[in-house]
Design brief:
By secondary structure, the chain is α/β, with parallel strands linked by helices. The protein is 48% helix and 16% strand. The longest helix is centred in the N-terminal third of the chain and has 17 residues.
């Protein structure tokens, strides 16, 4: 079977069949006629032939740091839903929080002729800058602000600033902070800076030093909560860079027979499903993760539709869930 035969059986032109498979505009009547013939014959267009003809693979490479993450899962869901709507397929690569592996996947995607790449990274190096600047296909960064390149990111600084200020306004006067590695600009640097500026602006500058660094796991949050209390003494509030860290911290406190939130209020970031299931629900920050994935695809499609480079930086908002 070929397009001409499908067109003849459906009573339409070959151009209409081509538009059907390339997600172009045709009337609903023609679309339904073609669909019935395709369903009856089991016809599938040759990907290789389409690639040779259009110079497009209709494949988008997506690189994420890990998959065991509620926030990353939501970003990927947003990417996938929009790619499906646009008629593209996704090739997913998991870098396991290794910046060097991200670079290898970028190189592999360039060599394998995907139409574009969406990168959800954590630590950006000079080599990242070089590879993205010299990319053979459009690249959009999601989850981090990457100045001078297309990126969609969250207002991490003000989110943590407002969260910390809210906790202080509720009468908590001795806070501690469990944060991510500072090499991670968004979750590490920006959220910690938001915490520091908030306690300083509210007249509690000494609290800026009540700080430990954690991995993005429940077990790490558990261990770092013990370290934080051992270092800082009695606290009445702990701000965590992620919900996962916060849940680990709560487990530690409960094992020490410390009432949460009575004695120590614990807050996180992410508005994860498990945070909502906590009793009482975890105080947290909602970020539009799924929306960021959708916007990343839209930005990529805009670049694919222009011969000249289209550079956009989109910062998304947040709200506190208390």
């Amino acid at each position: 079977m070929n397009i001409a035969e499908i067109a003849k059986m459906a009573g339409v032109s070959s151009a209409a069949v081509s538009r059907y498979f390339n997600h172009g505009y045709i009337s609903e009547q023609k679309r339904e006629s073609i669909r019935k013939v395709v369903e009856k014959t089991g016809y599938r267009p040759s990907i290789q032939a389409q690639t040779l003809r259009t110079k497009k693979t209709n494949m988008i490479g997506v690189i994420v740091p890990k998959i065991a993450s509620g926030s990353i899962g939501k970003v990927v869901e947003g990417i996938l839903s929009e790619l499906n709507r646009k008629g593209y397929q996704m090739l997913l690569a998991v870098a396991q929080n290794d910046p060097e592996m991200e670079l290898k996947y970028l190189s592999s995607f360039y060599d394998n002729q995907v139409d574009g790449v969406i990168l959800s990274g954590t630590v950006f190096t000079d080599e990242h800058e070089k590879m993205i600047k010299n990319a053979s296909v459009p690249v959009v960064v999601v989850g981090q602000w990457f100045p001078g390149h297309c990126s969609v990111f969250h207002d991490d600084y003000h989110a943590t600033y407002d969260l910390t200020k809210t906790i202080l306004e509720r009468g908590r006067r001795k806070l501690g902070y469990i944060g991510a590695l500072l090499q991670d600009t968004a979750t590490g640097q920006q959220r910690y800076k938001g915490y520091c500026d908030a306690v300083c602006d509210m007249g509690y500058a000494s609290l800026a030093g009540n700080f430990v660094t954690s991995d993005f796991t429940v077990s790490a949050g558990y261990e770092r909560a013990g370290e934080l209390l051992g270092r800082c003494g009695n606290l009445d509030g702990i701000v965590c860079a992620t919900d996962t860290m916060a849940i680990g911290a709560i487990q530690y406190l409960k094992n020490q027979h410390i009432n949460v939130p009575g004695q120590i209020l614990v807050a996180g970031h992410g508005d994860s499903d498990i945070a909502r299931m906590m009793d009482p629900p975890l105080m947290t920050v909602h970020f539009s993760y799924e929306k960021s994935g959708v916007i990343a695809v839209q930005m990529l499609m805009e670049q694919l539709g222009h011969e000249e480079s289209v550079m956009k930086e989109v910062k998304l908002g947040y709200h506190i869930v208390a």
